Amino acid sequence: MYKYNKKIAILFILYCFMFVFAACSNSGSNHDVVFIIDDSLDNVVIKVKDGEKVEKIDDPKIGDFQFLGWYSSNNFYEEFDFDQEIKKNTNIYAKFSYFELGKENYIAFKEDGLYGFMLPTGEIVIEANYDRVEPFRYGYALVTKDNKVSFIDVLGNEFSEWYQDYSTLTIGYVQFSKDGISKLYVGDNITKMIDEQGEVLFQIDSNEDIRVEHISFYENGLIPITVFDEEDDRNECVFYDSNGEIAIEGNYLACSIFSEGIAAVKIESEIIDSVGTRSHYVFINTVGEIIFETDISELYLMFDGIKPTLFKEGYAIGRVLGQLGDESIQTRYVVIDKQGNIVVDFDNDIPVDVSDGYVLTKNNDNYYAIYDLDGNLIMGYSNQYGGYQYYSSTISDGVVVLKNNLDMYGAVDVSTGNIIIDFEYEELMMFIDGYAVAKKDGLYGVIDKDNNIIVDFSYEDMYSVARTLVK
Predict the structure, then answer these.
(1) What is the torsion angle, in degrees rounded to the nearest 10, for the CA atoms of residue 198, residue 255, residue 237 and residue 285?
(2) Residue 187: per-residue pLDDT
(3) What is the pLDDT of residues 350-393, one digit of tens each?
(4) 61-71, pLDDT tens digit by residue?
(5) Model pTM?
(6) Mind listing the domains of the chain with CATH numbers?
(7) What pLDDT digit, counting tens, does each position of 78-117 carry?
């Protein structure tokens, strides 16, 4: 009996020793913490001692996709807590935005009287909580709630500051740019420039001496502002930097927004005829140096799916006035490249958009045609004409949305001029990444370029781009 108890005691001591040894051994062990970023990038593995915390690595970057944080699982329901102690091998997952900045295609939808956002395939990303919303631009969307406006990010986080709603002066023109700056009209003729944290960089009190144009925003760190020149007794245009200081000036009669590092500024011409002194546009870089001059007297902005733009895929469009008394110089419409070369010109057709190697034109009756950049006609004027609703006069995704003489919308392939979507919709917005919002029988849904229904026609309202016309 004694020997038996002695064996039990020895075994018990050995068991305790092994338990303590294992505990001590584990307490000094290392765990692998794996930062899983993307299939295109290598994982980052960090050794962390048991019970210690892991430090964040630098925010990863994949193209222009927005990094949204680190998460505990690949379903991205819960953010990873970096204050927790590491007790085992751990995976941490990087979350990125669904779309690259400047190429957002979140669909605004209205349900039970309120707006939210979904993906074109129907997955809801932000619940319907707002009285009105503007489309996402460079990571943020303007939203209205209880007669106040503010911004949200793609996770639905709201800015802390809310402003009185002046929607008639903000909708369609308020947007963040790639510079991370937005302008916001807050009443009493005050426009505030805010950053991505909602902090006010500076504000402009508009009066007879200074004015912020509606279609203006930061690009390349500059924004056009109209000021009154007392010496010349006229309005002139200058460019402000992000600190609210004049960065470029030059007795400009008008300024465009910057686009692809270039802006157009209007100056007086030497030509004087019966209509008076002429003016024309010259093109400058971001330090105000003239890159090239043109005879263009009027410019037409295009739309890139997010914002108005001067240059689109390297091309701009405008009008050259004829000269009275000289029949050899006639008014014509031109498409130019970034060196100022005329790529194609038209005597009567008015170009309204250039994209995918094609030019969309209209005539005075608002019928539309399609040319290639060599001036070859792809689709002539017909019963189809571009509607002024929702940027339908825009080439996007190789498609142009048009409207027939029965006020029904369809779409054509710009490369062939062939109809790919019959004229069966009450509304049809521009295609982006193969999807477009449509309206049928009074309700909204989403279709693809094969006219398949992706999101059922069951919503009170839907849109993917701002409801503002660029002329």
Answers:
(1) 80
(2) 75
(3) 999 999 999 999 888 888 999 999 999 999 987 565 544 444 57
(4) 999 999 999 99
(5) 0.83
(6) 2-100 (2.60.40.4270), 107-371 (2.130.10), 372-471 (2.40.128)
(7) 999 999 999 999 999 999 999 998 889 999 999 999 999 9
